[in-house]
Amino acid sequence: MSGARPQLRRTLCTKFLLPGGLLAIAALGTLALVFPGAAAQGATPVVQAVHLSASSGSCGSLNLKGVSDVFNTGNPFKSSIVSCSGGHLLHYGDKAITYANPPASSVAAGKLLFDQTCSSCHGSEANGVSPSGQATIGPNLQGVGTATIDFWVTTGRMPATDIAAVEAERKPPRLTDAQALEVAAYINSLDPAVPAVPTPNLKGADVADGASLFALNCAACHTITGAGDALAFGTNAPSLQNRQVTPQQVAEAMRIGPANMPRFSGNLTDAQVRDVVAYVTEYIQHPTNPGGAGLGGVGPVAEGFVALLIGVGGLALICFWIGDRS
Known about the structure:
Elements: H1 4-34, H2 36-40, E1 81-85, E2 88-93, E3 97-100, H3 107-117, H4 119-122, H5 146-154, H6 177-190, E4 197-200, H7 207-217, H8 219-222, E5 229-230, E6 236-237, H9 247-256, H10 270-284, H11 300-325
Antiparallel strand pairs: 1-2, 2-3, 3-4, 5-6
């Protein structure tokens, strides 16, 4: 009998306990796939709440249209840091990018500038409608966030010089950076929204990661060298080699998606946007060209023309010289 008991235990483990355990694990895995929230109960979340400063008040009503719920992608309530005061969103973000709104004290000056330079196209209330109720030339600007206004004004695309143009071209700005923020403060006061104006912290950027992200997300339109290219219907992807393109403007463009550009909100974190900005402003705008002359950065095409002109042309001249001597 003593030898039968171990055998009985082995039989029970083999026939019942082991298959039962495997079935239980499979059932739990299926439950986690079908009801992911049930499996997550009791787990410690990575981030539970927004970190407010001690002196912060309510952020007030905020338009979050088009903003992702992924942490640290430009949503103030999904950011590592957010600060509000008196119903006004002051700043938010993380160590990679800090987003900030101009102070409420700039609204009055911004309204005056808006009335003088923008209202004829966008309406007196920046809603794209004239006081008589007719649609104006420009679109509704309410609820676009301060970053959108700042980008279009500081790049000189607005105020527009040719309202019939298919695409507003970059030109020297008519307003200063401070005036652009004042206009943004006024428009944002009509319908507070995000994104706010970003300031990338480039010191901790991973430029190699930025190069990979640029090749994946940006090179199709701006080309791999950032030289820009023509798109459809008279539009174009502007050159990023222009050193007047600032880190702030690159970050703004990625978060707001101006014109035909897609809006990168949700698929790229603040750290990834910062990496792309660092690559554009450090390498595309300041190429090293270790092999010699950059030749416009268009690759083997230019090198082939140089080879034809100098190599084949030089050989042809040598041949003519030899033939003339003979």
